């Protein structure tokens, strides 16, 4: 992919990894292209029929494929997207077709249909009331992991499910999807008992035992990983018609995008691009030039082999009505709220701060890795099994 993941120089206690260029690039060059592990449309677009629920492509009027019944009112741009969505997570979470291959089903599907229907209805109502893309994204990731594990147990190992793993990121080769997700950094996130209970019921009703793949702690970490790593998908500068959130700024969900989350069409979790650090003077930017959730990382200025690649997680431009100090403060507050760190990029350091900034309310960097990685990578003696550090 022209890039590699390397440990960040300096503070090795944080176990931070960065993305480094493996060759030279000119401004405007595409450094790599990457498909998301999972992407979801913004809630106001889901059910509208204007965008594909799988690849997020804009669909011309009358051209959408509309499933006979779909709890989320999903529509698709193509049969290919419909099948991928169904296999990856839609059927397990929101459908009633067998979750096991025919040779293993043994009439299970007929037995479970009523309970599945009930559990899915309750969970869907919860998701719709929540209106937060991260919760659907988390459920879809869990479903994908479960589906991959289920496929491994079945005789049909090389079947369609395994083939649906993303290409080019090593997934399904050296590591499984779960290993990749385990390596991602995260910040603290809250998850309600109610949400976990409802998702567990959806899984258990489909195949007893699947609910064991979720615990309160694991799901909170997954939501924290989505909060920290999800990237906003914006087409051509983003849209202007996204409904304004009535939440407090501290509670709003944020995704990494230089256009600002308020302009996105949806968001996704990308394995390689998750390693892009933020800079207010970034060396690259994510574009969605194919009109889908496929991310093109494009160089914003000449890059040399070995240089760190960075993107802006927030809108780092200076707006017309802002002074340089106001623009600096706005982007740093956004970063502190969304990603829990005080930016120390070259631009922030060169622009003299106005007085003390203690009111940013975060430590230097509150993101972290899972305890299990800390032990593997640093060989520290294991402490209490909190999983958090
Ligand atoms: Zn599509
Ligand atoms: Zn900065």
From TrEMBL:
Q: What region holds the SET domain?
A: 1-314
**Any one of the GO CC terms:** nucleus
Stored SUPFAM superfamilies: SET domain
Chain intervals for the UniProt region annotation (Disordered):
241-263
Give the domain of life. Answer: Eukaryota
Query: Which Pfam family, an example, fits this chain?
Result: SET
InterPro entries, from UniProt?
A: H3K4_H4K5_MeTrfase, SET_dom, SET_dom_sf
Basic and acidic residues: compositionally biased ranges: 241-256
Protein's name in the database: SET domain-containing protein
* Organism the protein comes from: Grifola frondosa
**Mind giving the lineage of the organism this protein is from?**
Eukaryota, Fungi, Dikarya, Basidiomycota, Agaricomycotina
